[in-house]
Each structure stands twice: as C-alpha cells, then as structure tokens.
Amino acid sequence: MSGDGVNDSPALKLAPVGIAMGMAGSDVAKDASDLVLTDDNFDSIRVAVREGRRLFLNIQRFILHLLTTNVAEVVLLIIGLCFIDEEGASVFPLSPIAVLWVNLVRRLLDLLLTERVFRARSTTFATLIFQILLYAFELKSLDRSMFSLTPGRAFYKDLWANQTLFWAVVLGMMSVVIPIYVPGFNNRVFYQSGIGKEWGVVIGMSIVFVVWCEFWKLFCRKPLYKRWAPAPVEYTRAEETASKQ
C-alpha cells in the first residue's frame, strides 16, 4: 500500500507493507508507514524488492554453506575418534592446523615421522577443501542442477558469469598445494606430507560429492506435499452434481 495524504494513514498502518512518499507525503503518512520513498519514484520499490531478495538469497546460501561445511568437519573428526592406531592412540583425520586452515586461521604445530598418517591427512585435507569449494558452485541454485542453471546455456558460462566466485574457487584449489608440498611447511606446520596417487581419491570423492548434491536437488525439486500425496480423484460433472445432492 502506498500513499501520501493524511487520509491514507489508516490504510498504511494496516497494510503488511505501507509505503509513504518522502517528498510530497505528509508527516502523518510517514509515521504510519513502514517505508518512505525519498525520491517519490515508484520504480524504487521494484529496485528495493529485487535488492532485498538478492540479499536474502545470498545470506541464505552463505549460512547454508557455513553450517553444512562446519558440520561436515565435526562429523569427520568424530568418526575418526571411533578408531585407534597401532599404538592405541586416537585417529585424527585432520590435524588442528588443517581445521584452522579450512577456516582461514593459522597456528604452529610440530611433529615428525608418521609419514603414512601425514599422507592420509593430506588426502583428507585436499578432499575436504575441494568439496567445500565445489559446494559453492552447487549453491548458485538451491533446486536447479549446477550443469543446467540456465536452460539452453552451457554450464561453464553460468559458472564464469560470477567471475569473483569462479576465481575464488580456482585459487582455493591451488592453495592446497602450499600446505601439502612445501617442504618444512607441510610436515612441521600442517602435520601433513606430499601425496601422489592419493589424488585419485581426492578427485573421485569430489565427483561423488557433486553427484550426491545433484541427486539431492533432483529429489527436492518436487514439493514434499506432492511427493507422497495420493493421486487426485477425478470426478465427472454428473458425479459431482450427484455428490452435492
């Protein structure tokens, strides 16, 4: 509801969203409204609605990405605590510094030896980073497939449309090289070591993760109330008339 006069104030007050004119509107209408158009341009309402929806969707995607990735890290560490190594010590799939690196924080650690454990941690670390970064592409749409965001358009063009996100993902994947392969920096700081054939596991698990996300989107495209609802019963006009009598 929009208005500018004193007589519009009751309707502005009762409307879900009351919008008053900032330049030509009365003070009573401004006090009763929820929003005030400073330029008295109705097109500003359309722009504000579009911007508000964009911000809401971005916040929703960010919170969803943050919660799911953090829960994945916690579940991964809890599962690791269910096992023990040959020395009877708990198994940590990720070192503390690797967890902090995922969250863009760094700290110093010091440990030598245990080459096999280091390689396993490097594999887990790289897999987690790749999945988190690919998940950002999946969140470009909560229901459409990453490979068909825009019908009739190649998916790589949709990914390239947001160049900031694209290069952030690429640089994030390239940054995995530093904590895995830089001598001294990997085993003394990140508790890890270089890997070779383990990259097959990293790529394979990343593909499995993307496939799982695509299946989940496919499952969610049909509303829940329609997914298991019984088929509607069709009546003829004669049957409908008879049922009313």
Plain-language structure description:
This protein is 57% helix and 3% strand. The two termini are 44 Å apart. Helix 1 links the parallel strand 1 and strand 2 (19-21). With 245 residues, the protein is mainly α. One of its GO terms (biological process) is intracellular potassium ion homeostasis.
Assign an overall shape: elongated
Tell me the number of strands: 3
Give the percentage of residues in beta strands: under 5%
Run of helices and strands: EHEHEHHHHHHHHH
Protein name: Cation-transporting P-type ATPase C-terminal domain-containing protein
Membrane topology: Multi-pass membrane protein
Organism: Asterophora parasitica
Main location: membrane
Topology, please?
Layout: E1 2-3, H1 9-14, E2 19-21, H2 27-32, E3 35-37, H3 43-80, H4 96-102, H5 115-138, H6 155-161, H7 163-174, H8 177-181, H9 199-220, H10 224-227, H11 237-244
Parallel strand pairs: 1-2, 2-3
Helix pairs in contact: 5-7, 5-9
For the structure shown, list the relevant keywords.
245 residues, mainly alpha, three-stranded parallel β-sheet, 11 helices, 3 strands
Gist?
The protein has 245 residues and is mostly helical. 57% of the residues lie in helices and 3% in strands. The chain has eleven helices and three strands.
